[in-house]
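So, is this right?
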Amino acid sequence: MNREEFIKLLDSGEAVRDVVARGLDLRGVPLDGVIFHNVDLTGSNMSGVDFRECVIMDSNLSDCDFSQTNFQMAMLNNTQLPRANFTGAALAGSQFRLIDLSNARLDGADLLMSMFTNSDLSFASFVKAKLQQCAMVDVNISGVNFSDMTITYLAILGADMRSTILTGTTFDTCLFQKADFSGMRLANVQYQRCQFMGASLVGTDFSNADLRQSNFKDADLTRAVLSSANAERCLFVSAKLQEANLTKANLRQSIFMDANLTNANCSSADMYQCSMNRAVCIQTRFDQAELTYADLSHADLTDAIFTNATMFRTNLHNIKTSPKTVFSSSKSLALGSDPELLEAELWLSKHAQKQ
């Protein structure tokens, strides 16, 4: 089908179905609100075309040029778009389901409130794109380039991030639930107010990173590096931090309740007012750490080292220690076990067992 025949079909007002029209130049043809079903427009040039609120299903749009197009509020389902060019396109509010966007270019595109589900974005480029309030659920983002962007309110669920390119990228208030960042070097990056619940961060390098007010609940940070990171007011509840490096990190008012810090290194870390209730700190190093007003009640401090740590009013209620646990001289300024509280806790424990 040639250009004239295609335009005539559009003029009929019917949905465009079962059409093969490869390599067409459709620049200047209005396509807003059009329904495409089982259409093959491979290699066509539609740069600058208006696709607002269009519906594209079961189609092949491989290698098409959609640069500077308007795809706002469009719906695309089960469609092939590998190597497509969406540079500078307006895609706000669009939905992509079961879409192949591998090796596509979305540099500078506006993707505000767009959604990608069950799609292949491998090796796509989003350099300087506007990725705000977007969702990517069950997507393949291997090799995706997110460079030179400020990304806010992005939700990426269960994705493998290990080969993504994040040079010069800032994430703010993003969700990375159960995502895999293991082994990545993310030094000096900004991840403020981000959610890493259940994420795999094994061996991830966050040195000098800005992680303020982020949530690492149930995350695996085994052997992760957070040296000199700014992790103030973060949540590490039930996180795995075995052998993690937190030296000189800013951890003020962070919560490590029920976390496992076995063999972690918190030397010279600022842990002012940290909550470490029931934390496992076996052979953990706290030498020269700031622990003023920190709560280590019920923590397991077997063989832990607190040499030269500041422990003014540190709560050491009902802690577990060993002959190899080493405290600083400032332990005398810490708070020991509260007998009345301990008696109440024992009573509650017995009462709960009877129930």
Q: What stands out?
A: Residues 1-144 form a domain with the Pectate Lyase C-like fold (CATH 2.160.20.80). Helices lie at 3-11, 339-354. Residues 267 and 286 are 5 Å apart (CA to CA).
